[in-house]
Amino acid sequence: MIRKPMPSHESRRVLLVEDDRDIAELVRLHLTDAGCQVQIAHDGAEGLARAQAQPFDLVVLDVMLPGLDGLEICKRLRAGADYLPILMITSKASELDRVLGLELGADDYLTKPFSIGELVARVKALFRRVDAMAASAARPQQTSYTAGELAIDVDRRVVTLAGRPVELTAKEFDLLVHFAAHPGRVFTRAQLLDKVWGYSNIGYEHTVNSHINRLRSKIEQDPAKPRYILTVWSVGYKFAEFPRDAA
User: Fold this and answer.
1) SS3 for 155?
2) What is the SS3 assignment for 75?
3) How far apart are CA 38 and CA 30, in angstroms?
4) Terminal Cα-to-Cα distance of the chain (whole angstroms)
């Protein structure tokens, strides 16, 4: 379930789970200046308990934490009924952590060391995306898509391929729905970043590539010769157009 956008006069509620107290205080100060109410937890167990006990608009979650690590916290939060945006922070060398975090449903990530300006920009972009999702959910819209053997139930967030369920992360699902809603339309990586992730930054276009590669591995019979998500060379990607009676 996606929460409704907050009235503009209310502060966003942010939970920061970070064991480095100096970093935590610096982030808190800047997010407070950006109009957020920030709570800090310095270990994984405390962070998970707070996130599950109180309503927050965003969790900023370090991967390396005492007790429960950030990946396990992300996994448990994604198992809940409510959608809660998660921005993960990883060490510069932890490519595996970043991939696992995205697989478990993190919305975005930053690598240490990061600039405070970029973190604040990412946080604001996530808020814009959640507001847009909530506003879109309030409008009547198509609730299912079919293409060949692929079926998407938007309301239940369920995808099946030839009748068999396909397990997707939150971002993979959002990306697939965006494609399916616009068959035949070509999107650049920057456009996909803007529409699905809520920000456009040329330095993070590899995020789109990695998500499309994982999505293809799950829905394509032969990912090297995709049937659904097609590459438009030197431009970007598009979703294939299927006749209405295609099976």
Assistant:
1) coil
2) helix
3) 10
4) 31
The 10s digit of each residue's pLDDT in 201-243 is 555 677 788 899 999 999 999 999 999 999 999 899 999 998 7
In a domain, 32, yes or no: yes
The answer to whether residues 56 and 85 touch, using CB atoms and an 8 Å cutoff, is no
Question: Do 171 and 233 fall within a single domain?
Answer: yes
Most confident listed range (37-41, 113-117, 137-141): 37-41
Q: 49: Cβ–Cβ under 8 A, 6 or more apart, which residues?
A: none
**Pairwise CA distance, residues 98 & 114, whole Å:** 15
Q: What tokens does 91 get?
A: 């060490």
17-29 pLDDT, tens per residue? 999 999 999 999 9
CA distance 8 to 86: 21
Range of the domain at 39: 12-137
- For position 214, which CATH number holds? 1.10.10.10
Mark whether 154 and 202 lie in a shared domain. Answer: yes
> Where do we find the tokens 């030197």?
234
Are residue 158 and residue 120 in the same domain, yes or no?
Answer: no
- CA distances for 20 relative to 66, 71, 106, angstroms: 11, 17, 21
Is there a single domain that holds both residue 225 and residue 127?
no
The C-alpha R_g of the chain, in whole angstroms, comes to: 18
DSSP string, 22-69: HHHHHHHHHHHHTTEEEEEESSHHHHHHHHHHS--SEEEEESS-SSS-
Q: Could you tell me the CATH number of the domain that includes residue 24?
A: 3.40.50.2300
The kind and range of the H/E element at 175 are helix 170-180
Write the DSSP symbol of residue 12. E
